[in-house]
Design brief:
The complex is a heterodimer of chains A (446) and B (490). With 446 residues, chain A is an alpha/beta fold. Chain A has two domains: 70-81 and 347-444, Aspartate Aminotransferase, domain 1; 84-341, Aspartate Aminotransferase, domain 2. Helix content of chain A is 37%, strand content 15%. In chain A, the strands form five sheets. Chain A has a seven-stranded mixed sheet with strand order 2-10-9-8-7-3-4, with helices on both faces. In chain A, strands 13-14-17-16 form a four-stranded antiparallel sheet, with helices on one face. The longest helix of chain A is centred in the C-terminal third of the chain and has 38 residues, at 332-369. By secondary structure, chain B is α/β, with parallel strands linked by helices. In chain B, strands 1-7-6-5-4-2-3 form a seven-stranded mixed sheet, with helices on both faces. In chain B, helix 10 (330-366) crosses helix 12. Classes of the chains: A alpha/beta (446), B alpha/beta (490). At the A-B interface, helix 1, helix 2, helix 3, helix 4 and helix 5 of A face helix 1, helix 2, helix 3, helix 4 and helix 5 of B.
Amino acid sequence: MHRYLPHTEDDERLMLESIGAKSTDDLFTDIPRELRLGRKLNLNNPLSEIELSDHMKGLSNKNKSSDDLICFLGAGAYDHFIPSVVKHLAMRSEFYTAYTPYQPEISQGTLQAIFEYQTMICSLTGMDVTNASMYDGATACVEAAMMAVENARRSSIIVSRTVHPEVRKVLKSYMRFRDVEVIEADMADGITDVEKLKPLVEAGIAGVIVQNPNFFGIIEDLTEIEKMVHANKALLIDYADPISLGILKSPGESGVDIVAGEGQSLGNSLSFGGPYLGFLATTSKLMRKMPGRIVGQSEDADDKRAFVLTLQAREQHIRRYKATSNICSNQGLNALAAAIYMTTMGKKGLKEAAEQSAKKAHYAMKQLTSSGKFKPLFNKPFFKEFAVTGETPAGKINDELLKHNILGGFELDKEYPELKNGLLFCVTEKRTKAQIDKLAQVMEVV
Amino acid sequence: MKNYNSLIFELSKEGRKAYSLPPCDVSDISLDSVIPPSLMRDSEPELPEVSEVDVVRHFTNLSNKNYGVDTGFYPLGSCTMKYNPKINEDMANLSGFSKIHPLQPEATVQGALKLMYELDGMLSEISGMDRVSLQPAAGAHGELTGLMIIKAYHESRGDKKRKKIIVPDSAHGTNPASAAVAGFEIVEIESDKNGAVDLDRLKAVLSDEIAGLMLTNPSTLGLFEKNIKQIANLVHEAGGLLYYDGANANAIMGIARPGDMGFDVIHLNLHKTFSTPHGGGGPGSGPVGVKSELAKFLPVPVIEKMGDTYILDYDRPDSIGKVKSFYGNFGVAVKAYAYILSMGGEGLTDVSRKAVLNANYMMSKLKKYYELPIDQVCKHEFVLSGLLENDNHIATLDVAKRLLDYGYHPPTIYFPLIVNNAIMIEPTETESLETLDSFIDVMIKIAEEAKEAPDILKTAPHGTVVRRIDEAKAARSLILKWDGTCMNKE
């Protein structure tokens, strides 16, 4: 008997008798013989908990974690502080062993947590409405692009080259199959080139996707782009970093129509790239074009406040092929972690995390460039990430840093060949002055 | 604390905090001097100001208003709500898995890459496919990825006419929606009276414009598609490919494999068949498997083994590209991998045997009280069609809501669409005879109540933290965030 299977031999016999079958084989006679496997699965023997744990620890120990390395790597996944309460609360099994809240009377915990998540995301982004989360930032951005395409009934979309390369790649694979043209707008000194963007926007596109702070950590001023996009009846989509919104102007204040972003920084561990959550927020006007689950407030039969999934007429289980998207799930547990994180950090904490990240990043930039061996790649205001360059190949610097247990920056020439020897560093509130000084010191002697 | 009814915002008090950060130890620069004030926000975001104890009590109280597999029996058809082993959570939380950055040098994540490579091999063996990508984040995402692969395959052969996908009317709603997102037209075919693919209707729609057929096997009625080999031959002869929706794979592990039935592309749900928790709606994971001739179209990167080293292979010119950032829901993959190791090959086969045993046992008992439209051996789930005797016009919804009063999560209702008043029951293998019997007793009791005290059902639930909720009001008033005015009524 296996520990997860409760059937005794007696149970099995009793059940078979009740069914009127001689053995469980009788329950599979509907599968044509020639389709049956007819052999054992070629897998391992069952492992006990001790054996499993030893095996898994063996694999885990082959990886170097952020406990082993000082992390200065960002580029879309961030080593921000996660308060201890986040995991304790999100891992309450009434939350994580539940399904989608289709039975609201016994899912008020999940539903209210999502409602609170929605409230906080709207407040951070300055938008009217948001959904209960998407797979990740990149796919949320794709959904935003599709909303723009549907809204304008135009079949091309512009994305700035300063948007995360992974996001652009995911966008291109999706759009290739939807026959939507993706036009990349060039950049100048690390930001979207507004002059070059203008004729592209005037050619009649559905929307423009920018990232803010952009892939290089630079805070782009959206004023001119916003005017240009709206003058041409297109939508402005902003791919945003939620931590930055503790101090930076919100997309809503900048006139953005749709905000998408990666929510991992909000209390979710790095976990080798997933599971994360994508957030998607928009204006009331575009609400019904937004995909994904949405929780609304209502009342029960006794007039008591209660929460329920709403606007389901947009979704696949009702509209099938006419749905706004094929998405069925949300990243429920990750959105819950984000809600707990935002609650725990609160109004002051998110601001302080953002401020400390920005201050430490600026200190790091100063230390790294003080001798002249490295110089800033761009001369623009930045948030928590910045790029430097020098004579030494980026890979060589990172190899040397790794020897000192430092996880170095993102090697920019992998995605931007013109940015030779460029390294993109990220500094969060978790880094200390001593760690930054060590980074500068090792880089100085490579 | 059943009556707990506060929103976190209603607990907020200026000046409270639940976090701590060390003092900023770098020379204090003013951000105003490096970031233009025009790019900064004018007002602080309206996040709560509460103490750490407030946070803990609030979310603990919310969790008490939820029902999970750990609370009790959850026979939600099509969702495979089996037990989610605790050890798997511990394993995914090991720092070597949970605290690694997706862009770290390959040499520092060899354990993670090895795990993903081995999981690819295990899922290939279980499904009879040749290569598996772990990138898709959920079942619907897997469907979309698989359909992109099918489209890329036809395009690579210069066969550009194939713009249609056949979907049976019994399919999950995601099937046609995914096909639409992948840029296909949908051809829906009506099922036969047993809910199976109607071969004549299939033949009638096959042509050189068909890119493929999407199928769930066992079907959404919980019945094995006996003609699958003929179906596969017909679709293949017409030049199309076969897509397998793995939602129901819990019925056939170690017994039959989609790869041997003629399917070319599949997805599996790690959050159903492979025991990873549903998380109140996600994260899931929907790996996509293909036959070797389609492997070149899989999303990048693919993990390869070179000698003793594992690498991320991006050099795949025919790939459909990326469908998600990085490599998929790695944390979910760790749990599924741990589950497969815990079960082993024989354990997984036993899983399917016991899942099917449990379903047939319940079906044999319940068909005396509820209508069973297709009475034949079922696989891991079965579909009832409302009460057998129903003079009081009790809706399937009423039966479901009454189950809440007895402490159960109801089955899936009103799906599949081809069965009236559908009640779709999937017990899973991790439930004991005693649990099944208790649930059966309650279902019988509800059938009696339907005759004798119908109002109890029509107004159910009575014992839950909230009663039936006005969904129309939610859709009309559209309160989608707290606006500071909707104070607690209690």
